[in-house]
TrEMBL record:
This is 1-deoxy-D-xylulose 5-phosphate reductoisomerase. It comes from Salmonirosea aquatica. Signal peptide: none annotated. Its EC number is 1.1.1.267. Mn(2+) binds at residues 150, 152, 221. It comes from the Bacteria. One of its GO terms (molecular function) is 1-deoxy-D-xylulose-5-phosphate reductoisomerase activity. The keyword 4Fe-4S does not apply. Residues 146-229 form the 1-deoxy-D-xylulose 5-phosphate reductoisomerase C-terminal domain. Keywords: Isomerase, Isoprene biosynthesis, Magnesium, Manganese, Metal-binding, NADP, Oxidoreductase. The keyword Metal-binding applies. 1-deoxy-D-xylulose 5-phosphate binds at residues 125, 151-152, 176, 199, 212, 217-218, 221.
Length: 387
């Protein structure tokens, strides 16, 4: 295997730090070309000292000076700001761009990386939610692979390996149900952010953890799956599986179902994407069937957890609607984490934005930028009118 040079966007986050564990365990297979963070200069500097990338980018321009003075004398080039984040992925020294940054900020660097012919290891699901059609068309044009990192999509991708000739009847995305599985709306009206941040099975960044609690994470994943695997909404089912051992399933036209299983550990799908097509040895803890004698499955409650239904509606409507839903959700989740709105109001903000932002049926890049901006403005206006 020739050594792959990796640009790791969002290296200080949950996926980013686990990706560096994977890279550190395989020094002959992987090298680090680029590391980026938004604010966490201290951790970014420590990572750069250890992994010695060619370049680091700190998104927040105010943090440039400390990062520059800590790293430039080590021969590491340092840049700051959004344009640097987008252009750094174009360097000849990069083979794979791992998009481990959170939210809409993943869109532009991913577009620039695809145009530069880089393989994408995609953790940042929001990129495909916002602009799935644009991204998949660009990837086709530039003959670039998009390798899923999200655990469910990695599971489906793994199940599809060797099945290239066989059409998919449907996929079944598993959902943990989050910390509030089985609760009713009266209960949800009272929940705190501390409760919502306690995911039953996974330790992740704050934004995706709240999305898991509202079931928006599964809604975003339905849209992500549509674009990754070229499916209709009717071909994408969601089943609640509270143990998060089966990471997702594919059903073929003969009725046979393939599932990918394992303990909940993101290092495995990260490593699978970075090493693809090779499965590399790893000493991650192994799953023991006798420790999990009962694996259970139930229907999602999309009447109570309305975000899942809103995401399916957005997918069916198409155009800029998923982009609007994503932006409204990002603003609403930030407001919930800032104690400005309650848990149930997250869905209210999203629904409000879908009725207020103009529909665009065949959006181009500039339409996505404008729709994102307008949805953020409308969401913030509603939140601040009610505070
Ligand atoms: N965590 C997980 O297990 C999983 C995550 N994902 C997806 O992976 C992505 C990352 O999630 P996760 O690692 O949990 O998130 P975290 O919040 O833990 O990390 C986010 C990373 O992105 C950086 N960042 C934050 N805001 C910006 C911005 N505006 N511009 C550029 N960089 C930014 C952060 O920098 P700083 O630290 O300086 O703020 C940090 O490095 C998300 O899209 C998520 O949905 C998918 C499946 C599983
Ligand atoms: C690890 C991962 O891929 C997350 O997206 C996880 O699946 C969240 O869990 P739920 O959204 O199913 O609660
Ligand atoms: Mn997931």
């Amino acid at each position: 295997m020739t050594k792959k040079r990796i640009a790791l966007l969002g290296s200080t986050g949950s996926i980013g730090t686990q990706a560096l564990e994977v890279i550190a365990a395989h020094p002959d297979a992987f090298g680090v070309s680029v590391l980026t963070a938004q604010n966490n200069a201290k951790l970014l500097i420590a990572q750069a000292v250890r992994f010695h990338p060619d370049v680091v980018v700190i998104g927040n321009e105010k943090m440039f000076d400390p990062v520059h003075s800590a790293l430039s004398h080590r021969g590491i080039r340092v840049y700051a700001g959004d344009e640097a984040l987008a252009s750094v992925v174009e360097s000849d020294s990069i083979d794979v761009v791992l998009t481990a940054l959170v939210g809409y900020s993943g869109l532009l660097p991913t577009i620039r990386a695809i145009r530069a012919g880089k393989t994408i290891a995609l953790a940042n699901k929001e990129t495909l939610v916002v602009a799935g059609e644009l991204i998949t068309q660009l990837a086709k044009k530039h003959q670039v692979g998009i390798l899923p990192v999200d655990s469910e999509h990695s599971a489906i991708f793994q199940c599809l390996t060797g099945e290239e000739q066989n059409p998919i009847e449907k996929i079944i995305l598993t959902a943990s149900g989050g910390p509030f599985r089985g609760k009713d709306r009266a209960y949800l009206a009272t929940v705190t952010k501390a409760q919502a941040l306690k995911h039953p099975n996974w330790t992740m960044g704050a934004k995706i953890t709240i999305d898991s609690a509202t079931l928006m994470n599964k809604g975003l994943e339905v849209i992500e799956a549509k674009w990754l695997f070229d499916l209709t909404p009717e071909q994408i089912d969601v089943v609640v599986h509270p143990q998060s051992i089966i990471h997702s399933m594919v059903q073929f036209e003969d009725g046979s179902i393939k599932a990918q299983m394992g303990l909940p550990d993101m290092r495995l799908p990260i490593q699978y994407a970075l090493g693809y097509p090779q499965r590399m040895k790893a000493d991650f803890p192994r799953f023991d069937f006798t420790a999990y004698p009962t694996l259970t499955f139930e229907k999602p409650d999309s009447g109570t957890f309305r975000n899942l239904a809103l995401a399916y509606d957005g997918l069916a409507r198409g155009g800029n609607r998923p982009c609007v839903i994503n932006a409204a959700n990002e603003v609403a989740v930030a407001a919930f984490l800032n104690d400005e709105i309650g848990f149930l109001e997250i869905s209210d903000v999203i629904e409000h934005c879908t009725t207020r932002v103009a529909f665009v049926s065949t959006p181009q890049y500039d339409d996505y930028v404008a729709s994102d901006r307008e949805a953020r403005r409308v969401a913030a206006e509603l939140i601040h009118a009610n505070v």
